[in-house]
Write a structure and sequence with these properties.
The protein is an alpha+beta fold. The chain is built from eight helices and four strands. The strands form two sheets. A two-stranded parallel ribbon has the order 1-2. 17% of the residues are buried.
Protein backbone atom coordinates (compact mmCIF):
# COMPACT_ATOMS: atom_id res chain seq x y z
CA UNK A 1 0.00 0.00 0.00
CA UNK A 2 2.81 2.44 0.88
CA UNK A 3 4.65 1.58 -2.34
CA UNK A 4 1.48 2.16 -4.35
CA UNK A 5 1.14 5.59 -2.71
CA UNK A 6 4.73 6.46 -3.65
CA UNK A 7 4.25 5.26 -7.22
CA UNK A 8 1.04 7.29 -7.47
CA UNK A 9 2.89 10.41 -6.30
CA UNK A 10 5.94 9.64 -8.45
CA UNK A 11 4.96 7.60 -11.55
CA UNK A 12 8.48 8.06 -12.91
CA UNK A 13 9.83 5.93 -10.03
CA UNK A 14 7.51 3.10 -11.04
CA UNK A 15 9.10 3.22 -14.50
CA UNK A 16 12.58 3.00 -12.97
CA UNK A 17 12.12 0.18 -10.44
CA UNK A 18 14.93 -1.91 -11.91
CA UNK A 19 17.38 0.95 -12.31
CA UNK A 20 20.06 1.49 -9.62
CA UNK A 21 19.43 4.66 -7.57
CA UNK A 22 22.87 6.00 -8.48
CA UNK A 23 21.87 6.13 -12.14
CA UNK A 24 18.75 8.24 -11.54
CA UNK A 25 18.71 11.95 -12.36
CA UNK A 26 18.94 14.45 -9.51
CA UNK A 27 15.19 15.01 -9.57
CA UNK A 28 14.50 11.28 -9.62
CA UNK A 29 16.87 10.80 -6.69
CA UNK A 30 14.97 13.47 -4.76
CA UNK A 31 11.71 11.68 -5.57
CA UNK A 32 13.26 8.44 -4.34
CA UNK A 33 14.41 10.06 -1.08
CA UNK A 34 10.93 11.42 -0.40
CA UNK A 35 9.36 8.13 -1.44
CA UNK A 36 11.61 6.16 0.91
CA UNK A 37 10.61 8.43 3.78
CA UNK A 38 6.92 7.96 2.95
CA UNK A 39 7.27 4.18 3.08
CA UNK A 40 7.31 4.47 6.89
CA UNK A 41 3.92 6.25 6.81
CA UNK A 42 5.18 9.15 8.93
CA UNK A 43 2.88 11.61 10.66
CA UNK A 44 5.58 14.26 10.11
CA UNK A 45 7.86 14.49 7.09
CA UNK A 46 11.02 16.57 7.46
CA UNK A 47 12.40 17.89 4.17
CA UNK A 48 15.71 19.73 3.92
CA UNK A 49 16.18 21.66 0.66
CA UNK A 50 14.17 19.33 -1.60
CA UNK A 51 14.55 21.74 -4.55
CA UNK A 52 18.32 22.18 -4.30
CA UNK A 53 20.01 21.75 -7.67
CA UNK A 54 16.86 20.76 -9.54
CA UNK A 55 15.57 22.10 -12.84
CA UNK A 56 12.61 24.52 -12.53
CA UNK A 57 10.15 21.95 -13.92
CA UNK A 58 11.27 19.40 -11.32
CA UNK A 59 11.06 22.02 -8.54
CA UNK A 60 7.46 22.62 -9.56
CA UNK A 61 6.70 18.87 -9.47
CA UNK A 62 8.34 18.44 -6.06
CA UNK A 63 6.28 21.38 -4.74
CA UNK A 64 3.08 19.79 -6.06
CA UNK A 65 3.93 16.51 -4.36
CA UNK A 66 4.73 18.22 -1.05
CA UNK A 67 1.36 19.97 -1.22
CA UNK A 68 -0.36 16.65 -1.96
CA UNK A 69 1.45 14.80 0.85
CA UNK A 70 0.31 17.48 3.28
CA UNK A 71 -3.26 17.40 1.92
CA UNK A 72 -3.29 13.63 2.53
CA UNK A 73 -2.71 14.27 6.24
CA UNK A 74 1.07 14.16 6.68
CA UNK A 75 2.50 17.23 8.40
CA UNK A 76 5.53 18.64 6.59
CA UNK A 77 8.43 20.61 8.07
CA UNK A 78 10.23 22.20 5.14
CA UNK A 79 13.65 23.85 5.25
CA UNK A 80 14.09 25.61 1.93
CA UNK A 81 16.09 28.50 0.47
CA UNK A 82 13.64 28.85 -2.43
CA UNK A 83 11.50 31.34 -0.53
CA UNK A 84 8.83 31.60 -3.22
CA UNK A 85 8.23 27.87 -3.23
CA UNK A 86 8.40 27.55 0.56
CA UNK A 87 5.97 30.41 1.20
CA UNK A 88 3.54 29.07 -1.40
CA UNK A 89 3.45 25.71 0.39
CA UNK A 90 3.58 26.72 4.03
CA UNK A 91 0.81 27.72 6.35
CA UNK A 92 3.34 29.19 8.81
CA UNK A 93 6.90 30.28 8.15
CA UNK A 94 10.04 31.37 9.94
CA UNK A 95 12.62 33.45 8.08
CA UNK A 96 16.11 32.71 9.37
CA UNK A 97 19.15 34.85 8.79
CA UNK A 98 22.55 33.66 10.00
CA UNK A 99 20.82 31.12 12.22
CA UNK A 100 18.49 33.60 13.91
CA UNK A 101 14.76 33.99 13.39
CA UNK A 102 14.15 37.38 11.76
CA UNK A 103 10.47 37.00 10.89
CA UNK A 104 7.78 34.55 11.86
CA UNK A 105 4.11 34.25 11.08
CA UNK A 106 1.51 33.06 8.59
CA UNK A 107 3.30 32.37 5.29
CA UNK A 108 0.85 34.41 3.21
CA UNK A 109 1.38 37.46 5.41
CA UNK A 110 5.16 37.10 5.34
CA UNK A 111 5.11 36.82 1.53
CA UNK A 112 3.40 40.20 1.37
CA UNK A 113 5.88 42.06 3.60
CA UNK A 114 8.20 44.51 1.87
CA UNK A 115 11.31 42.96 3.42
CA UNK A 116 10.52 39.42 2.30
CA UNK A 117 9.43 40.53 -1.17
CA UNK A 118 12.60 42.58 -1.64
CA UNK A 119 15.19 40.34 0.05
CA UNK A 120 13.89 36.83 -0.55
CA UNK A 121 11.53 36.98 -3.51
CA UNK A 122 13.71 39.24 -5.67
CA UNK A 123 11.16 42.01 -6.15
CA UNK A 124 12.40 45.57 -6.55
CA UNK A 125 10.72 48.68 -5.20
CA UNK A 126 9.31 49.24 -8.72
CA UNK A 127 7.83 45.72 -8.76
CA UNK A 128 6.23 46.38 -5.40
CA UNK A 129 4.75 49.68 -6.61
CA UNK A 130 3.25 47.99 -9.66
CA UNK A 131 1.68 45.21 -7.58
Amino acid sequence: EARDRVFTLFPRLAERTHQPAGLLSGGEQQMLAIGRALMAAPRLLLLDEPSLGLAPQMVHRIAEVIREINAQGTAVLLVEQNAGMALSLASHAHVLEVGETRLSGPAGELARTDAVRRLYLGESAQDQGAA
